[in-house]
Amino acid sequence: MEKTAFGIYLVVLCTGPLFFGGVGYYAYTFITLGLLAGSLLLLAANVTKDRKSGSYQFRFLNTPLNLPFLVLLLFLIFQILPLPPSLLKFLSPEAWIIGEKSLAASLIVGSGEPVGAWFSLAPYGHPVAMSLVCMTVYGLFFLGLAQTLTSTKRIRTAILCILLLGSFEALYGMIQTFSGNKHIWWLKKLFYRGDVSGTYVNRNHFAGLMEIIIMLATVYVGALTERRKKPFPPLAEDPL
C-alpha cells in the first residue's frame, strides 16, 4: 500500500501545477481527493494486528512538525466555534459588535443585548473552514510523503520528478512568452501576458515554484558531488 500511496503522491505533486497552477475548484478537488486517497491507504497500512494478543495497533509517524500542525488546526477550529458573549467580548469586542449587528432587530430586547446569542471570532467562517480543510490535507500530505520516503531510490525518484516538472514549466514558459502565444494550454491569458508564467495563472506563484526547485536542484547536486579530502602535499625544503 505504501508503494501505491507514494505513486499517488507523486502524480498529484507533479500534475497539480499543470492545472493552471492548481487554482480552480476542479484542481482543488483533484488534489484533495488524490491526497486523501493516499492517506487512506497509509492509514490502512499503519493498522496492524498483534498475533499474540489479537489487539489492533496503530503506527503514527512522529515528526517535529506534528505539534505545530495540531496547534494550528486547533486555532482554526477555535476561530469558528460559537463562544459565550462574555468570553467573546474579552477576546474580540469587534467580533461581538459585528455579530450583534448581524441579528434582526426583533431578536434584541430592550436592554440592547441579544438573548442567547453566541458568535464566533471569525465573522465570516467560510474562509476559515476552507483553511481548516486545506491545512488538514497539507498535514496529511506531509506525513504521508515523509512516511513513504523510506529509501534512497524513492527520494531520488521524487526529486527527479520535481526537477522534471520545473524544467517543463521553465521551458513551456519561455516558449509561451517568446513565441507570442498568450495562452495557457487552450485558455487565453487575462493577466501577465508579457511575463513568463508557465502553466500558472499567477506569475508570482510560478516564481515561487522556480525558487523552490532551483534550491532543490542545488542541494541535490551538492549531495551527489563526491567530496574527497586530499592531504596537502609536503612542503619543499628551503635550499641551503
Shape: flat
Query: Alpha-carbon distance between the termini?
Result: 75 Å
Query: In oligomeric terms, what are we looking at?
Result: single chain
Q: Unreliable stretches, pLDDT < 50, 5 or more residues?
A: none
Count, helices: 8
Structural class: mainly alpha
Instruction: Give the SSE order as H and E letters.
Output: HHEEHHHHHEEH
Binned strand content? under 5%
C-alpha Rg, in Å?
Answer: 27 Å
Helix content: 55-70%
Biggest sheet strand order reads 1-2
Main β-sheet description = 2 strands, antiparallel
SS elements, strand count: 4
Average pLDDT taken over every residue: 82
Question: What would you say this structure looks like, in words?
Answer:
With 240 residues, the protein is mainly α. The strands form two sheets. It has a two-stranded antiparallel sheet. Helix 2 crosses helix 6 and helix 4 packs across helix 5. The radius of gyration is 27 Å and the shape is flat. The mean pLDDT is 82.
Summarize this, please?
The chain is mostly helical and 240 residues long.
